[in-house]
Amino acid sequence: MLIQDKHAVEQRLLIQSAILMSFVAIGGTMMGVFSGSSAILLDGVVSFIAVIIKVMMIITSRLVSNETSKRFQFGYWQFEPLVLIAEGSFTLLIVSYAFLSGLTDLLGGGRAVHVGPAIIYATIFTIADTCYYFYVHQINKKLQSNLVKFDNISWSIDAMLEAGILVSFLVAFGLEHFGYAEWAVYVDPIVLIILSLQMMPSALKIIIPSVKQIMGVAPLKLHNRIQFIMDSFMEKYKFKDYVTSVQAYGNVKMIEIDILIPKNFPKQTIVELDEIRNEIDLAIGGDPAEKWVTITFTATKKWMAKDYLLDEEDED
Prior knowledge:
Layout: H1 3-35, H2 38-65, H3 79-107, H4 115-143, H5 146-177, H6 181-184, H7 187-215, H8 220-237, E1 241-249, E2 252-260, H9 270-284, E3 291-298
Parallel strand pairs: 2-3
Antiparallel strand pairs: 1-2
Helix pairs in contact: 1-2, 1-4, 1-5, 2-3, 2-5, 3-7, 4-5, 5-7
């Protein structure tokens, strides 16, 4: 898939997702207030947060497609993990509050809910959210967009919320129907607590990888792969040594390779060294628009990466 087409599909999916999630947010908030269900109201509030984050993702996707500017000369890739951190943090904050609210209601004697409308709402949105999640998941298997992948987590979360609400209110309906209405009031706060605990790991799955990217933690899998590739080139061209540095921002891979060559290295011209660069770049593979590769050659150790040991003098 061409990179222009990829960004176009990515932005179309994000815009579509934001519009559809707006309906979920409005529907959830209105039904939460009408039915008196804190669990449904939580769904609505989380969905509103999701809409805001989706708009930020759309803006980020458009910025990333521009690659560079005068002010952001290395591109806008770092905005992607920042947006994801915001999404995960807001979600974690909301579900933490919901957990405490559910605990308060549970200890305070429960909460009465209009079960009938809540069941209808939960049935419709459970089916809709699940279908849309799998629809986007299938498209992203080919697209391989990091933004779409994490955006789709919000649909997974919402589908789980709705399914949990549906099952629990069916239980509440059964309790009321069979004469145990005094127990039915505890269903909503219990569901709120369970859903809050269920959503916390999903929020952390978004936050932790994004924080690692912002902090500059090297992706181990990418590091090992570049090391493996360079070991083969060391053997082929008899380099003296090399140092690699890798980083990832979303789908974009930053790769820096410093190669130490002998002063009598047989390939001395720029053209010859560029041929080696092209070989290494081809071995690395991947979409050219989703990697930033810098390959340098030097015969002097001090021009290697900063972590290179300089306890020995340069040899001829």
